[in-house]
Amino acid sequence: MRTIRIGSGAGYSGDRIEPAVELAEKGNINYLVFECLAERTIAIAQNAKLNDPTKGYDPLLVERFEAVLPICKKNGIKIITNMGAANPQAGAAKVREIATRLGLGKLKIAAISGDDVVEALKVSDTKILETGAPASSMADVLVSANAYVGAAPMVEALANGADVIITGRVADPSMFLAPQIHEFGWSQDDWDKIGKGTAVGHLLECGGQVTGGYYAEPGKKDVADLARLGFPIAEVSEDGAIVITKVEGSGGKVTEHTCKEQILYEVHDPKTYLTPDVTADFSQITFTEIAPNRIKVGGVTGRARTDTFKVSVGYNDGYMGEGQISYAGPGALARAQLALDIVRERLKITGVKANELRFDLIGVNSIHADVLAPAPEPTEVRVRVTGRCDSMKEAVRIGNEVETLYTNGPASGGGATKSAKQVVAMLSALFPRDKVVPVIEYLEA
Amino acid sequence: MKLFDIAHSRTGDKGNISNISVIVYDQKDYERVREYVTPERVKAHFKGIVNGEVVRYEIPTLGALNFVMQDALGGGVTRSLALDAHGKCLASALLAMDIPAKN
Fold first, then answer.
1. Which of A259, A274, A388, B37 could bridge A287 with an S-S bond, Cβ 3.0-4.6 Å?
2. Do B47 and A387 touch (CB under 8 A)?
3. Chain B nearest-CA residue for A365
């Protein structure tokens, strides 16, 4: 039975770089996948591309490829990543430049685009899922619209001999599924296998979150060596058998419980996990430890995919202003509450136009509101005021009203900070599959 | 006792929807958690944070429940004014729920 090993080199765009180097050097892997595209990342990248047509790919693409490409080339490891973001062609050109500069010899790079449907959406009556409004009604604030494309174009690029695949928006698990389909010759409507291959992707797509990251609870769920957390590897066989593991000797751990937390991460109905490739069914999934840090996955299946692609839609949603200041020692809470009252009144007196305001006491109620029983008075409290405005000018005034507490507010306020930024927010829509045409371009070094 | 004593949890976000898994450490506690930690109790527990419907999925093979909470993230991760816009800390708040000790 043929088996391949797929490593996960990043769980988000800013993730640690050395664990991927460790995977490439010691992981005995065939494929290294980097998932670097959060919901909003592509909208921000779209803005970068508008300012400079050679930009719009992941800001860490160069650093990551410089670190792993020589080792991957030496060890025959193929790389798949969505670091192309809003500009896969420019990302691929950059990878070719790195390969040439480092003297790595022949390399075939595929750029996969076609996920960008913003122009089509601007004139479409497709409904925005969250609001029910037609997409065309948002035409003047739309920044980006990208369809979550599936594994198919990546499978084609692998069949055409690509060593590196740079994509824009694709579904995260599809990047892990593509090499399995390619290597094992699975039919893309073998729903059971495609479901299993998608589970592999879902378990690995967040990098260290399945190897003990985002898991530790000192005294109850201890995890050793998180500063050297090892990133995950999936061993997958032709028949769909799966083992999740990590590089031997690396930090962290892979257990039944780390896998249980990750398989449900960002999942709604576990029987119906929708991707562009399949409707995967995790409702009967099992995890069994067959050796330390080796977890066998069973019970996954799938059924036919839907006729639509999910599209994530980025739009300009005004400006957010924020200010913070700290109070400490006896009476800290009373002074912090007084500070909030003063800012609330100041925003009224000075006529700051905010569509939404929020007043928090960090250390008291900023995270859990009033869900938990009140704690004894904290020795430090941080005041935080945020608001959403239609203009940058208004947003800036929120932080200013917090900062002026220094000389106009309660005693002993310290460490004031303020910021204001443009907000690119995200919505979603479903777009007919046949209206999204993936495009594959090849570059050779 | 707290749910924290017998279960662990992880939060995920999609738009304005938060999902929280509750996974028992020991399978023998699953039935009791399943009986007590109902969608109604979770909705009441998150009063002031979760404004929409709470739906619960059961995954007995994992000893797990998955709560899907609508309108839970201040309009969604990308526009929320909250400090923890992803609602990543909500898992901890759920584990603070009191649960009757075993008879």
1. A259
2. no
3. B83
